[in-house]
Here is the input.
Amino acid sequence: MIDCAAYIGSFPFRQLPHPDPDVLVRVLAREGLSGAWVGWLPAPWQRDPLAANDALFAALDPHRQTLHPAPVVRPDWPRWEQTLRDVVDRGARAIRAYPMHWGMGPHDQSMHRLALACGEAGVPLVLTVRFEDLRQRSSLDVAGDLTGPHLRALARAGERVHLVVTGAGKELLEETHWGLTPDEQRRVHWDFAWIWGPPEDHFAHLLRTIGAERFVYGTHWPLRLTQNSRANLELLPDELRNPPIVDAASFAR
Amino acid sequence: MSEPTPLIDAHAHFYHEESGRADWRRVNDARMRAGEAMGLTYHVVSVLGSYGHRSPTYFPSPDDVTRGNDVMRGMADADRERVRWYVTVNPNHTAHALAEIERGVAAGAVGVKLLASRRADDALNDPICQLAAEHGLPILHHIWQHRTREWPNQEISDGADLARLAARHPRVSFILAHLGGGGDWAHTLPAVLDTPNIHPDLSGSGVDRGMIDAALATLGARRVLWACDLTMETGLAKLRALEVIGLTSDEMADVRWRNAARLFPAGTFPRCGAIA
Here is the structure.
């Protein structure tokens, strides 16, 4: 099982303990995970993504057996199509995009084109709902949480679209999933790092209603405790133990 | 998954049939199910009035406070092996709050729960603290980590507000609610550092890396309590994190249960054994 939601690098709004690739490799081994899609954490707050991607590839280079680059492609940036081709050629397993940080609305056509292009290239598009809880967010961190309209519009953009949405809670997940046709629903996978376990049992509810096959494993390291997703699995009711969630490694081209 | 070392959740809630949700029993049962899976020895629980059904959760009416405490007492009496309880009060109704504490103590309450009905350092909280001191009860106070603005439906307090109240009542132990429960926990730690009768609990949905390490480094293992509040998966994640950050067995026991055992009245947790 791989982690679809890991990063390396610093966070602009608080100090993170050692957000370094060699530490991530050790953490993944401790957690029994075979690898991770890794993004460059400063990238959402940087305008030009090219330098971020270069830094990401360079940092991951000694660990490529375990840490798989998930670089950023910004579809309102000149020559983004070439950037996409380049990073896929360099081994990107997934592409990250941050429409909220780029001021893009739900129906932004450049994001639609990116989703379609990723689908054609055979790489999932990873969308991050949030990095921190809204209640602790810095006044300088003005990007809101990713919205249901954004997700529904992208999932409807075309049949080759494949979204991996990380950091959603129950409400966003449900308003997106049940606002899509069955074909569109199958274009979206979700991690469950931010979904509540017991006593509310949101995760158990979602496994029952939308199915384990829609979920992948994400930790949000180095922002959040990697133990949280595993704890969510451990505390499922007996009848839902060991749900057949999907290994994002199976999405490889 | 069960651990031989005792484990006390110092911050838990039960719902009831008048709390406006049809699935209240399922949620309470899920708490106990998860507690068993985690090896929880005791849940220290409160009921917050009608949870907004008849009066606001954080500003409960006297009638809802009384009804909630009655229900809470009944639930605790029904599960003496695993459940202890806080008596909840609204300081805006002083006479009622004091009477509820007396009634609660007589019925077995082991602590006082203060919500966000009044800023923590408000003088209306003083008589409640004085009565808690007389009975040797800790006070669990709802806290917003770093109050930078007002939020609707509650009169929020932060660590600095609670520190002013705690300084006026050095005989009372205050449990600062949910360090991971929203807001900036990094502000809370220095805000309460010099107020030794404040003990943050680690509960809340937040599982920021660095939070537990910072709490322990700033305050030490004798001042931090493990707890869950509304999200038990984050409680288990924090427990797992505590196991890998290099605590001694003594420090781990302090956070898991001994700090709670020290704060609550003697004999509150007989299944935990004596503190070494």
Remarks:
- Chain A touches chain B at residues 14-17, 30, 132-133, 135-136, 139, 196-201, 203, 221-225, 227-228, 230-232, 234-235, 237 (CB under 8 Å).
